[in-house]
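lol forgot to send this yesterday, sorry. struct tokens for the thing we talked abt
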């Protein structure tokens, strides 16, 4: 989805779901990533990347993200970021 440097700088607040209306009989959403830093974005442009679920579990990016977050917050026991206020979302380094 992105180059190494861009992907490493993504933080949790950079991810958000987007409901894709009228895309079949079941609800469908895309996970959108705001990419505002990185080698290819030297002019401060806000760029977006997105991914959707794949029926093949071996290549599904949504499942890969779920496994990654599960590993960080349940296996490694990294403390979950304080999201009680919007200002706190961006405090700390959550770009592991």
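and heres what i got for the seq, position by position
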């Amino acid at each position: 989805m992105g180059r190494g440097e861009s992907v490493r700088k993504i933080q949790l607040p950079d991810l958000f779901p987007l409901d894709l209306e009228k895309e079949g009989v079941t609800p469908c959403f895309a996970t959108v990533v705001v990419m505002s830093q990185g080698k290819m974005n030297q002019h401060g442009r806000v760029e977006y990347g997105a991914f959707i679920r794949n029926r093949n579990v071996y290549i599904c990016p949504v499942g890969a993200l779920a496994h990654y977050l599960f590993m960080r917050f349940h296996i490694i026991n990294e403390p979950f970021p304080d999201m009680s206020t919007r200002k706190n979302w961006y405090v700390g380094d959550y770009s592991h």
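The chain has one domain: 4-81. anyway ping me if u want another try
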